[in-house]
Design a protein that fits this description.
Length: 248
């Protein structure tokens, strides 16, 4: 692959919480890093905690000794998946990365879609969001309930917050360093999968792109409690928007 002048200067950190991924962990890390070969530097941050009990940690530690671009982040303090992502974001920023890519493990997100995110850097965007429901995007091997929750969440969010993404709940996304720093300063309040929507809402005044992705095999069930918390957080953001305390 011929490196572009822009991408050859990019320092990327890939944030990926992993749990009970023993069957696919090594292959997934290897394929994601291979998709980043056009970059000046790429580092894969695999965030693990006590939820993982199937040997994934040992597999990745062994791979870490052979693959200098992999860092295994042990975070036993995590209480939920949001904690895992936030720990990964902070590790990425501490590594001095200029860009941060967030991706789900287990091939629910495809390594083959990574180059499309990298092209948005060349095109001058500040952040990019994967879409399963926009043109070219697909959601496969997932239940009708999960599809309705994801699409319904996008519809309600767009109506209340006047956002315009075709997929407000996807967790495959790319941020320039200063954008992610600004999100963390604002604070990620949600403790449920809604945190992905919360992050996107903070970016709607930025120069963003949507990237078609194929999403396969829902990584977790969305509980009634998570849905309730999502609505609570959505109305919190709506209240901040109405009061002028949040620019969306």
């Amino acid at each position: 692959m011929v490196q572009s002048n822009t991408l050859s200067r990019v320092n990327l950190a890939i944030v990926c919480p992993m749990a009970n991924e023993a069957r696919t962990a090594e292959g997934f890390v290897t394929e994601v890093l291979a998709a980043c070969e056009a970059l000046g530097e790429a580092r894969f941050l695999a965030v693990l905690d006590r939820v993982s009990r199937d040997g994934t940690f040992d597999i990745l530690r062994a791979l870490e000794r052979r693959e200098r671009r992999l860092t295994v982040v042990w975070a036993p303090e995590n209480r939920c998946v949001v904690d895992a992502y936030v720990r990964g974001y902070r590790e990425a920023l501490a590594s001095k990365a200029g860009w941060i890519l967030e991706i789900d493990a287990g091939y629910s997100h495809r390594p083959a879609d990574v180059p499309a995110f990298l092209r948005t850097i060349e095109q001058g965007y500040e952040c990019a969001f994967g879409t399963r429901f926009g043109k070219g995007g697909r959601l496969v091997n997932s239940s009708l309930r999960r599809r309705m929750i994801s699409q319904g969440g996008t519809l309600v969010t767009n109506l209340l917050l006047r956002t315009q993404l075709s997929d407000m709940t996807s967790g495959f996304q790319l941020f320039r360093r200063d954008i992610l720093e600004d999100i963390l300063r604002k604070g990620i309040v949600s403790r449920s999968p809604f945190f992905q929507t919360e992050m996107k809402a903070y970016c709607m005044k930025r120069h963003y792109a949507e990237v078609p992705i194929l999403y396969s095999m829902a990584s977790h069930n969305v509980s009634a409690g998570s849905i309730k918390e999502s609505f609570q957080q959505l109305f919190r953001l709506y209240g901040l928007k109405r009061s002028g305390r949040l620019a969306i």
